[in-house]
Amino acid sequence: MSLVVEQISKKYQDKAVLADVTVSFEPQKIYGLLGRNGAGKSTLLNIINNRSFASAGQVLLDGKPLTENEKELNQIYLMSEDNLFPGSMKVKDIFKISAGLYGTFDWEFSTELVAAFELDTNLKFRKLSTGYRSIAKLITALCVPCDYIFLDEPVLGLDANYRDLFYGYLVEAYEKRPRTFIVSTHLIEEITNLFEEVIIIDHGKIVLTDTVENILRESNMISGPREQVESFAEHLNVVGKEELGGLVNVYVSGELHQAIPENITVAPVNLQTYFIQLTKGKKGI
Amino acid sequence: MSLVVEQISKKYQDKAVLADVTVSFEPQKIYGLLGRNGAGKSTLLNIINNRSFASAGQVLLDGKPLTENEKELNQIYLMSEDNLFPGSMKVKDIFKISAGLYGTFDWEFSTELVAAFELDTNLKFRKLSTGYRSIAKLITALCVPCDYIFLDEPVLGLDANYRDLFYGYLVEAYEKRPRTFIVSTHLIEEITNLFEEVIIIDHGKIVLTDTVENILRESNMISGPREQVESFAEHLNVVGKEELGGLVNVYVSGELHQAIPENITVAPVNLQTYFIQLTKGKKGI
């Protein structure tokens, strides 16, 4: 079973929000779906989950279009910034309704999570702070039986302790029952080591899909006097540049086949820095 | 002019949310107000801004209680997770109404900020994503003429580029017209160097107020075999502890007067780590 997004485009009032997006999600992998504010991430997630319609293209689960198949759609769960349940509903009732909608619910795990995050499930959803809304949503997402779980900003508003706790529980959930998680977040550094693959979306287009291992191995920052750095980087794939007086930092991807001249330093780059450099340009397709 | 919170307590249904909170904010300083999810931060901010009432205690601006003084209250602005304007209102109209409510508005600066963050001010507030809602709110907060600006989670949902942009503009706003900013955030590390003082709230109580300089100078992690570390830390103020087999990390605050024995390493601690250690216990006053 695999989930394939095929040539999806989306326009709002003649403005292209997504342009020809093709990406596939394999079973039992943890993906990072990264993009800047306004890059089109949430639109893509809403289309995959049938909450919004594509202007063109289709989403296939096991080769079958999702729009024609309610049963297949039940295999996909989206935790998003939208609240699908009325604000007056108590958290414990959200769990119950989710159990009904998706067939089962991991009540044992949810009890453990509720205790760990000190969530009061008798509270109405709208009485919760931003952080606790995220907690209620992420517990639901980790306990439904679906095979594809999309987590859009799961740690929004969470303190550092609770973010760490969530990362631990995500790994635990995955190990107990391997399934596909697709995590979209702006706090890249602290979750990088959980991702197997990364998909970067920018200006409504997929600009990179690769394993974290490959990205980290092939990303470097080259620093030194402008002329020497530019000459060294001439045949490399330059993704970003910073100037500081006569010195420059150039961010590159790809193998360095040449010997490194004196005056020039080469340093590895973490995923967050690589992402920032790759996507720091202005918006608009 | 100074803003003093005097012995504020707050109960919800017999549960103490704030207990005897006393803290003062001096003119023209940038404060960090740090606390875990559920620590009582938002309740405190709402009381200071007259959006919620204290069970006991008072808030004084220049010695006068704020509850009796609408004019003084106008000197205080709170950017919070609550949306005070109808979702159907366009962003540009939120700016206009804020200008009317607070007397003036820095239109030149807001134009610069709108361009930098690529915010479409013709959009209705509810059409904005979480990140762009934060952007619309923080632009308003940086452009009203108030002397005390509370920013509750200003970077909620912002990507890393935009978070950096905001930190830069906060400094610029402060330098152009020094005023008091009180910033509440869960992303402590990336903003530490902007804070002059830090206030830490935990379980509804103020547990620390100090300058960042003092906290960083006096905070250390002591690592090594359990017995030696415990004996070394005996007369120090221990704020947290981690065990890893026979080895322990003990986090302490205060000056180290003794010589450091062999086997033991002492390393400085950053503000986020210090905060995590100080507040990692269970909730409940």
TrEMBL record, chains A, B:
Keyword ATP-binding: yes
InterPro entries, sorted: AAA+_ATPase, ABC_transporter-like_ATP-bd, P-loop_NTPase
Source domain of life: Bacteria
Domain ABC transporter: 3-228
Pfam families: ABC_tran
Keyword Cell membrane: no
Sample GO molecular function, one term: ATP hydrolysis activity
Protein name: ABC-2 type transport system ATP-binding protein
Lineage: Bacteria, Bacillati, Bacillota, Bacilli, Lactobacillales
